[in-house]
Amino acid sequence: MSMSALKLPNTEREDDATGGVALDTRELRRALGQFATGVAVVTTHERGGDPVGLTLSSFNTVSLDPPLILFSVARKARSLEHLLQAQSFAINILHREQEAISNRFAQSVATKWDGVDQRPGRTGAPLLPGALAHFECRCYAQHDGGDHVIFVGEVLRFDCEPIDAPLIFCRGQYRSLDGSR
Ligand SMILES: Cc1cc2nc3c(=O)[nH]c(=O)nc-3n(C[C@H](O)[C@H](O)[C@H](O)COP(=O)(O)O)c2cc1C
Known about the structure:
With 181 residues, this protein is mainly beta. 12% of the residues lie in helices and 43% in strands. GO terms for molecular function: FMN binding; riboflavin reductase (NADPH) activity.
């Protein structure tokens, strides 16, 4: 069947004021949610020393030489100001049994670190035990990303578990590779 014969949801509408096309944000979010990702928590420290952490699905690889990764953070996130001033941060790639950690660090509350196990990485950013991989990074670049800020990190150090059990996020839900969710 050709694409033109498919019945598509209303994904375009005229913007009366400008005559341009404004996208339907709900449909856009739904379409973007078709892209399955892993789940990560980025961590760093406030200037005062308190830990900072935020759940991410926007993590991705950029370059091997130099070793660069990226993620984006919403301008409304409370963690943003701390990440903007941080010299270094760590990315913790979550195991499929770490859904509770993901939910905890997806809350915008000051108590999110209460009772959470952590160990200091070499750059000082807290590392979450049980994660499938840790990437300790120095801040390489920050870019405007609309209502988000795009962070590029240079990987200084990493470790990786020899297992294959990532937490997956797709269409607004957690999944796992073995189909148990
Ligand atoms: C699976 C998942 C993925 C998320 N990915 C991102 C992301 O990539 N960027 C972002 O800014 N927020 C993302 N969020 C939302 C933040 O984790 C959430 O807004 C958090 O409360 C921000 O905390 P803060 O306000 O204390 O910084 C995600 C949430 C979930 C559950």
